[in-house]
Write a structure and sequence with these properties.
The complex is a heterodimer of chains A (about 160) and B (about 80). Chain A is of the alpha+beta class. Helix content of chain A is about 30%, strand content about 35%. The chains are: A alpha+beta (about 160), B alpha+beta (about 80).
Chain lengths: ~160, ~80
């Protein structure tokens, strides 16, 4: 199943190099029902105290889409959402640029907040993406380490 | 033949992003495969020197190290994920 197949569905997952547009993604979700609330989360690239020139995001094509789609399906049913969108970028991303977008639409606000939160928590630990730092002094820095607090964030849903 | 794919610092330490190998007869689980790969050269050994840190996927599904490889066509090895 390609990403294109999801574009007209209430569960939409995109893995892409290019940036995304929050407003058009919210408008996309509005076609799917009598929505009372939409919660969105946008993750950006930090400059880490001015040292970072870019992050390189590597992903596992095929598995990245499948894993995030599975997480979105779980959120869709667990929180009775009307729609859910997740977009994750790959490639080189500069400080201040967008990395990830999650939007959840529901009848009432709590489900929208919870749905977006749930997708982000599982995406952090289960979606096959890795970040490498490139520093302003021209050197390529380290691979970003996974954080224990991300596992703890996921565990709160268990 | 089975396809092996590597990501992030696992890929860098091994020095390639993918390869096809014939599984030795005594390799039935992911753990067995890691032990086998470590014997190839110091790059593989460095990639898998802390096996408990390494995540594995069979045909693009997260898998535990004690799982049987079975008839999986693609086996992936990578560090803990840092997306989002």
């Amino acid at each position: 199943m390609t990403n294109q197949d999801h574009n007209n569905l209430a569960i939409r997952v995109q893995i892409q190099a290019e940036d995304f547009d929050l407003e058009s993604e919210i408008n996309h979700l509005k076609q799917f029902g009598d929505i009372g609330g939409i919660a969105s989360f946008t993750g950006l690239c930090r400059d880490e105290g001015g040292q970072l020139s870019a992050l390189e995001l590597e992903h596992y094509p095929g598995m990245a889409e499948a894993q995030i789609l599975q997480i979105c399906h779980e959120a869709f049913h667990k929180f009775d959402l009307i729609g859910i969108t997740a977009i994750h970028r790959y490639g080189k991303i500069a400080p201040g640029e967008n990395i990830v977008l999650v939007i959840a639409a529901s009848t009432h606000r709590q489900a929208a907040f919870d749905g977006a939160n749930f997708v982000m928590d599982f995406l952090k630990t289960d979606a096959p993406f890795w970040k490498k730092e490139y520093l302003k002094d021209g050197t390529s820095g380290e691979w970003v380490d996974a954080k224990d607090k991300d596992d703890a964030a996921k565990d709160k849903w268990m | 033949m089975v396809k092996l794919v590597y990501f992030a610092w696992v890929r860098e330490r091994i020095g390639k992003s993918q390869e096809e190998i014939d599984l030795p007869e005594n390799v039935t689980t992911i753990s067995d495969l890691i032990a086998h790969l470590r014997t190839i050269d110091e790059g593989y050994d460095a990639a898998f020197q802390e096996p408990h840190v390494i995540r594995a996927a069979l045909d693009k599904t997260h898998s535990m190290h004690d799982e049987a490889i079975g008839d999986a066509k693609e086996i992936a090895f990578f560090p803990p994920m840092t997306g989002g």
